[in-house]
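Notes, Module 5: Reading structure tokens.

Key idea: the token line is not a picture. It is a compressed description, and you learn to read it the same way you learned to read a sequence, by spotting repeated patterns. We will look at two proteins. The first is printed below with its tokens.
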Amino acid sequence: MFPVDSAVPHRYPPFVTWGLVLVNGLAFLYQLSLSPAELEAFLYRWALVPARYSDPLWAYERGLAPDNYLPFLTNTFLHGGWFHILSNMWMLWVFGPAVEDRLGKVRFLVFYLSAGIGASIAHALANWDSAIPALGASGAISGVVGAYVRLFPRARLIVLVPVLFLPLFFEVPAVLFALIWFLLQLIQGVGQFFAPEIGGGVAWWAHIGGFVIGWLIVHQVRRTERRHRRYFADEGKLGFRPDGSWRPRA
């Protein structure tokens, strides 16, 4: 299931979401400009390599400072390929505006960065000896998905389900989508401990950690409703309430 659209309207332009998409895109274009050798050195410096912190000797031998913790943040703006960045940015594009609308711009930015750092910590703890650079905004965006589900438990999503070569579209509750998505991450994450060679290419525990952090802290950082303007009559999606739930016919 791939999310296509959200029924939750937003009252303010999602400038932070747009800015995050732009920054991620510019960082990816910079990666594309590097030669293979330069890119490898760049990723070992700015992506998250857990062995850098678990084995200081290994880090010093490769010119990496084990007391530099910036990669816990900077890795969240790097990506490993076109599909990686496009799928991540699309998820942010679908879920980000509604969450930003409820939190406010500054709080949303702090929330997003906190979820990304928390996801990086979760990945490092689950892969403490790994010398493979981990990178991507998936953990931070998982936090946004967790916040979305916590804020809008009755919301509905339009999802794409490819069947053979046919793209089929369905409307599903956001809670169901999040539950299926989270269970898949959890199964893969647990399986990684038993078969590292299978799970080593995806930071499953970053996804899990980011989602849990987003779900837990969003109500602590959201703005109260009285600080929002009221919805105008023509705002929102036809047939849906402001919280994204279905509005039955009278």
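Here is the second protein, with the sequence above and the tokens below, as before.
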Amino acid sequence: MTERVVITGMGTINPLGHTVTETWENAIKGVSGIAPITLFDASPLKVHIAAEVKNFDPTEHLDRKDARRMSRFEQLALVAAGEAIAQAGISADSENPYRVAMIVASAIGGLEALASNILIAHERGPSRISPFVIPMMMSNGASSWIAMRYGFQGPAFSTASACASSNDAIGMAWQMVRSGMVDVAITGGSEATITFTGVGAFDRLGALSRRNDDWSMTPQPFDKNRDGLVMGEGAGILVLESESHARARGAEILAELAGYGATEDAFHLTAPHPEGKAGAQAILLALEAAGVSPDEVDYINAHGTATQLNDVAETRTLKQAFGEQAYHIPVSSTKSMTGHMMGSTGALEAIFCVQAIRTGVVPPTIHYETPDPECDLDYVPNQAREWPVRVAMSNAFGFGGHNAILVLRAYS
């Protein structure tokens, strides 16, 4: 017998806020988190804008010594996990620690630690490499730090499937809780790739918006004049539990994680399949797992990166999966506000889905001005909308052809 999987805690730190409440308030106001880069001198690059986490001092949240030994993505993960765990009300004293999993994604890990120490090795010699560089760069570092801080001792690992990473992490956690392997899973993703190397590398791919002088109007998902994504950073963490476990301890249940589906395009390392066939299949698998029909979906948080190829392919994917019903479902890209947080973006977008279910408001796609004939769905342009949401879906499509879909539902 499989268990229903429920969400009892959520936490985030991202370009829109340091908590779920602050983030949601800014999202429904249509606030943009994009601004000129401050984390490093971007003047030699062709891209000078990003969606940074603002006013973040890790020592306000973490032991100063530990903070120095962590990459930024690990610091962000611990902050988000702290909020989620506190809301869920779990601890190693109240739980069997071996039945609490930590599955926290990062597509790239501690990029800055790796890049800076490569320079140190070549300029100053290998003896000057930091002894902490390996634990600072490894993608599983976030899961390990959460385990050490809170004393949980169940399965702990990271997933890496590019921009689908945190949806896959949440999906793996869902499967583990659903099967009874664990009672609780702390899951999501964290990413901090706004570095000289990271921005330069993504720009070389031709993926980034270069509107340095017009950054208040970019990115523009699904807009005819979109010119690329804006890099973001941050973390999103959810606490999943089996329904029976949550009810037994009297936890507040925020929503149900009802389904997960994943496929692979097998087409190109960076471009999505132009027809979106495998993405549509992932949607249908997630709906089937959830026991939800396409006409029951009330809101879709799109991948919506604002690249020319992605937005057209995703629109086609939704039409394949939903048919004519696709035209009647509000579809918004919150990356228009948060930027693209790479391996952590899906976790924050799952939180947005939960908030839409709980509040009856769907967040907007800001910066939308000129319709694209190839992107002709309802993208909730520029203003949040009051809209009853019982079932929400979160899309994630990553480089390498990864498709990962989550279906969330009001708990009853």
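Summary for the second protein:
- The chain has a mean pLDDT of 96.
- The radius of gyration is 20 Å.
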